[in-house]
Structure formats: structure tokens, C-alpha cells
Amino acid sequence: MRTTIICLVLLLTGLKAQSATFISATDPHITYMGRVSFTQVENAVAWTYPGVQISTVFSGTSVAMKVKPASGFYYIEIDDLEPYKLEIPKDKDSIPLARNLQQGSHRLTITYAIEGHDKKPVFYGLFLDDGASLVAKPGLSDRKIEFIGNSITCGYGNEGNGKEKTFYYRLQNFCRTYAFLTARALGAQYHVVARSGIGFYRNYMGKIPDEIMPLIYPHTMYSKKGEMWDFSRYTPDVVCVALGTNDTTGKYTLSGLVNGYRRFLRQLRENYHDAKIVLMAGPMLSQRRRDDLRTAQDSIIHERYEQGDTLIFRFEFSEADKSLGMGSQGHPNVAHHAKMAEELIPFLRRLMGWE
Fold it and tell me: What was the pLDDT predicted at 322?
């Protein structure tokens, strides 16, 4: 049996994949999951949110991808081999992923592992063996989740050890977050609209007030302008709104929380008439802030119920107690994210009847 060599080794040694056939990002055999744009870059796909996924099935013994240089970190899954995360260097755009695979068909999934608002990633396509091709377009589950969140949903510092005093992209991995783990466990596809520091009423410590989630949400990219997202492209069965941690920093008010929820829920319901919406409280909330957020959530849920909207629910993650260690700057680490997934999975399974 031929030895499989994951091309992280090739990347480190500077070798290039032995590939000659180029497959454009617009090839119909490629499946995309997440908010992506087909118009920002000609014959390419662009995005800014974490968790965007590219999948296909290819023939041959090797594969490489062409992406924007210095565009961040990607999580690579090929068949049942051990997944790995790789960083795209600033001086390369053609990145080997694997070689010396057995002849035949191979499943490939590429997931963007970090927030892309600074990196602005672009995917141009794949390189395969000479004469090889894409042989199948992977399907997506009928179950659909949307995660709307902040740094926790993005995986901020989840691969850190709690000692870091600043943010590093290399320590962020969406594929080890509660959101990714939950969707995988439930056999659901997902979309992510999230950024560190964001809120539905006010951002962290009141910073950048004109970039709160309701203003960004209608757009394909993390932006207040530009391409508008076509909501008909993805209609979730359930929307998990994991915001509130940043809203309750600094000088917030309970009325501000209630009014913020009111505005954002109206916006969500205009786009998703029949989706269940879950208002969540994250693990980084102290007791007073947790109590205030709970009060605001209960108030707005009662208000929506009186208006006939009975598809609004509330869910709380258990508060972080540091027993599992910490990620960067007080954020959940991968062990805590696994615990969060263990809490959320049965809740959504019961709520949605996804047995």
C-alpha cells in the first residue's frame, strides 16, 4: 500500500505538488457552504466569515489549491486521513494539500479556520494530476443551522493556553468550536455570521457603534456596504444568536439590550419567517451581566409570543469555571468548546426533532 504524504511536509520544504490540471473555483462539481461571493473576484470565490467550506471529490493521486497569498489558515480534510490546519504564506498562492494518494476518487473538504475580515480570502481553484478531474459534487444536509456570534463562535484563541496577552490568528480554529462540533454531530450544514467584539446592540466596550451586527448582517461580506446577501440562497431551520457578551461590557443599559433584541429579531424574522430562533448566553458572562441578558431575553421572548411568534427560545451555556483551562485572554479553549457542544447538541436535537 502506497504511503500517503500529507503535503504539510511539502509546504515546509518548499516543494510543489506534481499537478498539471487546473480546476476553476466556479466548476459545478465544487460545493460551497457559507456566505460566499461569486462576483467579488472574476472566476474565483471570496468571503470574510469563518467556517466557509469548500468540498468536492477528485480523481488522481495529488491535489493542491490556489488561494490568495497570506489569506490565513485553512483546515484540510482528505478522505479519512487525519485533518490538519495550514497557513498560507505571503509569497505563495499554489499550496500542496496531498500527494502519493492511492489511485481512485478522494473526498476533499477545505474549511476556513479563522475570521477573514482582515485577510479577505479568495479561492481560485484546485490543481490535480495531469488528466485527473473532479468526479462528484458533494451534497449538503437538509438540516440547516445559522450561527450568529462573536469571538467565541469564531474560536478566538481557542488553541491558546491562557497566557497570551494578545490575539494570534494561529491560535484560532473555527473547526474546534462548539458551532462546528454541534453541526457535525447533528449532521447539519451551517452558515456563520460572526466577528470578534461584535454585538447586536453595542460592540465591545461600546467601540465602533456603527458596525453592530444588525448593520453588517444584510451584507455578504463583513461590511456595511457592498454586495447584499441573497437570503433565498440559505434558509436555516434554526438560528442560534450567540451575542450579548460584548453588548454587556462597559456602560450598557437593560433597555438598550431589550431594544437591541427587538430590532434584530424583527430583522431576522423578515428574512426567516418559519425558522426557530434561539437567544443564547455565552460562558464568559459574569452573574450580573448574565442576569441582565436573561431578563432582556425573557422580556423580548414574552413580547414576541404576545405577537404570535412562538418560535423564539432561550439557551444558556454553563459559566466558564476554568476547570478545563482557558484559551487566549479569557476565552474558551478547545476543551471548553467541546463541553459547550455537549450542552448545545441535545438541546437542538430535542428542539428540532433531529434524532
Answer: 86
- Looking at every residue in the chain, the average pLDDT score rounds to 94
Dist CA 17 CA 138 (whole Å): 24
53-59 and 72-78 beta bridge pairing: unpaired
Give Cα 3 distance to the centre of its chain.
33
Q: Write the pLDDT tens digit of every residue in 6-22.
A: 444 333 333 344 448 99
Q: What is the total residue count of the chain?
A: 355
Residue 63 phi/psi, 5-degree rounding, is -155, 140
CA distance 106 to 89: 26
Is pLDDT above 50 for 242?
A: yes
pLDDT in tens, 114-149: 999 999 999 999 999 999 999 999 999 999 999 999
Classified as helix, coil or strand, 302 is helix
Residue type, 324: L
Mean pLDDT across the stretch 224-253? 97
Q: Which amino acid is at 158?
A: N
Helix, strand, coil percentages in the chain from 3-state DSSP, rounded to 5? 30, 25, 45
Candidates 35, 50, 310, 302; CA nearest to 154 is 50
Return d(Cα 43, Cα 37) in angstroms, integer: 11
Q: How far apart are CA 73 and CA 88, in angstroms?
A: 6
DSSP letters for 103-125:
SSEEEEEEEE-S--TTT--EEEE
